[in-house]
Amino acid sequence: MQGCDGGVLLVDTPAVPGEQNAFPNAGSLRGFEVIDTIKTQVDRACGGPVVSCADILAIAARDSVVALGGRSYSIPVGRRDARTSSLAGANNDLPLANENLNVLLGKFSRKGFNPREMVALSGAHTVGKARCLVYRDRIYNDANIDPAYAASLQANCPNTSSPATDGNLAPLDHRTPNRFDNNYFHGVIDRTALLSSDQVLLNGSTDAIVRAYSNNPTIFSADFANAMVKMGNLSPLTGTQGEIRRDCKRIN
C-alpha cells in the first residue's frame, strides 16, 4: 500500500507484518507461488537478481489480462522492492466489499484516481472470485440484487456463518468468469454483481461510466490499460531506494 513496490508479496515476520493478512486481502489474494516461480526463472536467465519483484508483479498482472483475452499495454520498468510493507495501510486504504460509492470514491481519490479510473479498475472483477464470508450479506440482506441470482448463490453460501462454508467461492462475473471482457459491467446493470461495492457503481454519479463500458468494450479496455499503468507508477522505488529481492517473500 506504500506504492507499486512489491510490499504485498512479503510474508509476515516479527519485524515486518505483511499486507497479505489485511482484512481485504486475507483469503482473497492468491497466486504468490506463480510470482516465486517467475522470479526463479528470470533470475536464472539473467544470472542473478536484477529484475525486481515489483516489476515482475506488474508484468505478470498485464500478461494475465492478455492470457484471458484482454488488451496488452506497455509497462514502464525499473522499480525496486520495498524493505517494508504496511498492514495498517492495507486495512485503511483498500476497498471493502460493503462500502458505499462515496467511500470508494474517496479512497481512490486519495491515491490520485478519478471516478472514471476507479470504475475502469473495478472492471478487473471481470475475473476472480470472492469468499462466502465477503458476499453473504449481499445475497441475503441487499434489496438491490436480482432475486434469482441471489437464490442461485445461497446453497453454496448459507446465511449462518460457519468455517465449513465461509470460504466457499463464487465468481465475481458469473457470465464469463474466465475471460477478461466487459461482462462485469453488464452484471452491474443487471444487478448481478457479486459484491455490494461493485453494485453501488450504478444509480449514482458513476452510472454513465458503467453504461459506457458495458456498451463499448474497446473504450473499457483502453481506460483499464491506462489506469493500470497509472497504478503501477504509484510511488515507485527507483535508483538506490529499496532493493532487488532475491526472494520475493522476504527482504534480503
TrEMBL record:
Cofactor dependency: heme b; Ca(2+)
SUPFAM superfamilies (alphabetical): Heme-dependent peroxidases
Residues at which substrate binds: 95
GO MF term (any one): metal ion binding
Cofactor-binding details, from the entry: Binds 1 heme b (iron(II)-protoporphyrin IX) group per subunit.
Catalytic activity entry: 2 a phenolic donor + H2O2 = 2 a phenolic radical donor + 2 H2O
Pfam families: peroxidase
Residues involved in heme b binding: 125
InterPro entries, sorted: Haem_peroxidase, Haem_peroxidase_sf, Peroxidase_pln, Peroxidases_heam-ligand_BS, Secretory_peroxidase
Disulfide bonds: 53-248, 132-157
Gene Ontology biological process terms in this record: hydrogen peroxide catabolic process; response to oxidative stress
Protein family according to the UniProt entry: Belongs to the peroxidase family. Ascorbate peroxidase subfamily.
Protein name from the UniProt record: peroxidase
Native organism: Thalictrum thalictroides (Rue-anemone)
